Amino acid sequence: MWNDIRYALRGFRRSPLFALVAVLSLAIGIGANSAIFSVVNGLLLRPLPYPDPDRLAILWLRSPGINILQDWPSPGEFNDVRTQNRSFEEMAISQGSSATLIGLDQPENVELLLTSSTLFHLLGAKPLYGRLLMPEDDTPGKAPVAILSYSIWEKLFSSDPNVVGRSITLNGIGGIGGGADKNQVSVVGVLPRDFLLNGEIMPTVSSTRRMDIFLPLPLNAEVLSRRFDENYNLMARLKPGVTMTQAQADVSVIAAGIRDKDKRDRTFTISVVPLMEQVVGDVRRALLVLLCSVALVLLIACANVANLLLSRATGRKKEVAVRAALGASWTRVVRQLLTESVLLSLAGGGAGLLIAAWSLYVVRTMNPGNIPRLDVIGIDGPVLAFTFGISVLTGIAFGLAPALRSVKLDLSSALKSGGRNTQGDGGFTLSRHRLRGLLVVSELALSLMLLIGAGLLIRSFARLQEVPPGFNPDHVISMRLGVRTHHFQNGDEADRFFGELQRKVAAVPGVVAAGAVTSLPFTSSVGWGGIDVEGFIPQPGQEIQADQRSASTDYFRTMEIPLIKGRFFTEHDMPDAPKVCIIDQKFAERFWPHENPLGKHLGGPKNRMEIVGVVGVVKEYGLDIDPRMAFYRPGRGGEYFVARTSIDPSAAAQSIVRALHEADPARPIYEVRTMQDRMSDSMARQRFSTIMLGAFSVFALILAAIGVYGVMSYLVTQSRHDIGLRIALGAQRSSILWLVVRQGMELAGAGILIGIIGALALTRVMASLLFHVSAVDFATFSAVPLILAAIALLATYVPAWRATQVDPMMVLREE
Predict the structure, then answer these.
(1) Is there a contact between 519 and 205 (Cβ–Cβ < 8 Å)?
(2) Cβ contacts of residue 161 below 8 Å, gap of 6+?
(3) What is the pLDDT of residues 96-124, one digit of tens each?
(4) Distances from the Cα of 302 to the Cα of 332, 434, 440, 601, 634, angstroms
(5) Can you give the pTM of this predicted structure?
(6) Residue 544 to residue 537: CA distance in whole angstroms
(7) What CA–CA distance (Å, rounded) separates 443 from 445?
(8) 316-357, pLDDT tens digit by residue?
(9) How far is CA 185 from CA 93, 101, 147, 180, in A?
(10) How far apart are CA 376 and CA 379, in angstroms?
(11) What letter does residue 103 receive in the DSSP assignment?
């Protein structure tokens, strides 16, 4: 084997260009596969870092009939499931919130998770310092304690181990100590660096993915009886031997009882979602499509290198014949040739690892938003093993056919020819080179499949960008305030704060309008619930659910949300005035399609609101997500603040933030983003899939073009004798050109036909990734084959033109 390796390396030194082209082709294919496999391994194959993670599940409410596919349960529903289920070993209830940590150099917004002590036991957590929450911390009325995440301990407390026992002040927790505005809590523990719990694992009502501080969630009998306070997360661990299917059947029975008791929508149920599925979500299909795509790129690279080896084998016939004549068996010769191909593949794998590492860096830089746990994905042991394995298998795969072809030769003819190519070796037709033709056809077919997939995603992404968001995102800066209405002692204090806020910001140069809202489009903030509609009596088992937002008087003008009927809010619509509301057009069309909704009423007797305006529909959760109908209440403030500027909003952001701090220096301001950036981020998943598949398709197209060019160049080189004779006997050079081009286009036609058939199967798998584009889109299936045919024509034309330049006198003199 060592002699084979040394001989192969000497051969590569004599043919450096061949080795370089082969290694680069394989590096692209293997590197792309290693990069995508590292993502798949990190998400789909590597288990979550908890004891028996396959027994962990998240519980969600679902009401598909009213367009609620995932909703947070209430304490009452938690209590029902906890007391009635037969499938769970343990359950935990949690609620996301936020607060302002004061007493440090400057106020800091922190994200909280209020949770029962069972959560840490469920996840097998161990403290780095101190202790975790204990059952006695769940007791109502007990002084609250706090557990710090490693990141917040490192960032705000300088990794001080003596922080345990220290009191910290959280402003505006809400829900602890009777909802007091300020709460002193004692730090009793710090979590280790490797403890994983964030919004990817447990998506809370809070709009951020991080969890900084963990607090107890004491629930008394009154809280546990709440049926419609649906703002909590439920996590459960299945009993040993219980499957997710069995747990779902068990919980579905409990959900049916809740549906009947609470008169919920007839489609109401509770879903038991495996924790891994919760983390992966809808990324699984996109990753599998990308994994199939890079596999196709690798196959194309293999076909290219196989063609290179076939061309090289033609010049080595004399060498193989001599070795065979000296007694080498065919297995010995095949072993030597396979050693060379595997060495090439291993070199390609090594270069591919560099490409994979660079690709992962680019992915992290792009931050596509659709890859959870991105920070833990990298080149690890399984990825190295995968790369090594795929390199060896690839080397055998593309080297075996050329090796077997090399040993099938006539020793007498090969030794007599002296290594000189003859007509018998070549021939001016592809019929003598069926294997080469088959490889090129496969390259073209695979390339067409990738190009059609990329074309569909590009058209889908273009359609998505054309969707109107329902407002004008240009020149709008947005930010999140570390303040909510319950952070104030009373309504007057809130009015004074937000009034001062508006005045300060309005005085900033370049600010045209400013407003506040409780739920801003293209953030993960949510707010919906049931509502009564005047004159509409729901059928038994039917609910009316709508998005509910509180907006300031200038919010609609700031966002340029169009007014369709009626009026916007005014200063006279504040809380002390008669209650009014504004509905969106979807709400109006649902209940008053042929009449004027102005003057109608929403809500029950105690919270009756008159409809004074109708506005356009806003895409709240994403351009590709059908929004629920929505209504707005008047309010002076909200968690999100927006300002429209006459100048670049990013340039005005610093002045606006400074003005907000002047209104109240103790209120933290964060997530300062333009609405254009937020809207762009909402399309990050689609953009990432489109760019990745597009890049793979370009690689495939280049490799396929090189393959066509290589085969046709080889055919022309091998057929110089035939071409020279034809020209000497009077053949026109145009006929020679047409003869070569025709054979190249026959290959292209066969590849395109097979590729279209394969694409019809591939694109059906991609259907869920497309937006308002059919999986058999006529424009894509028409344009892409034409593009590929044009590339193939160009790759064929160059060798064909070279064929017309053959000098017949030179050929005849050689003979």
Answers:
(1) no
(2) 129, 190
(3) 888 888 877 777 888 899 999 999 999 99
(4) 23, 17, 11, 69, 65
(5) 0.77
(6) 10
(7) 6
(8) 667 777 777 777 777 777 888 888 888 989 999 999 899 888
(9) 20, 11, 10, 12
(10) 10
(11) S
